[in-house]
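seq:
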Amino acid sequence: MSGVSPPRAGDLKWGADGLIPGVVQDARTGQVLMVAYLNRESYAATLDSGYAHFWSRSRQELWFKGATSGATLEVVTIRADCDADTLLITARPAGPACHRHTTTCFDDSPPGEGFGWLEQLWGVIASRAAERPAGSYTTRLLDGGVDLAGRKLMEEATEVLMAAKDHATGEADNRRVAEEMADLLYHLLVLAADREVTPSEMITVLEERFSS
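struct:
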């Protein structure tokens, strides 16, 4: 699991039946995958193993998600809601979350593009901006201010263009272009952190332009 500490069992409000609902969300795409119930035994098993365990209300037994199908849920974070009576579990699914062999239990849409994971990247960059730990590349960029961060962004943009041109002539594959674009995106977020411009501000602008 990530460095975010899960709530202690004693701090949760278990139902009269000893259960608490758990909403499972894909840590990468942000999609809600399923809802299931946990008791203290399955919650402890989840914390101990790092993989989602639930309590089957129909079978009245502990249920390790993916034990037979292989479609396990590797837990990234566990958070409680404001009333501490519902859990939000972010996880990395190893396969379809639903017994119908669909991505989620709510629809059969294809998986998303992974934008939800950018929240984690932004969280790391924002943390570096606030704490400036020594030895971090992000810290070095931020300490260099807009000149260094901006220059690196321009360099990465040029490399994206070169990779795209090579791709157009068959000299580069999708992986190389994706790597260069990933570097560009990372450096854009670092420059945003340096200027204290949040991704939500950028998204707001995109929404306004899209709706106009």
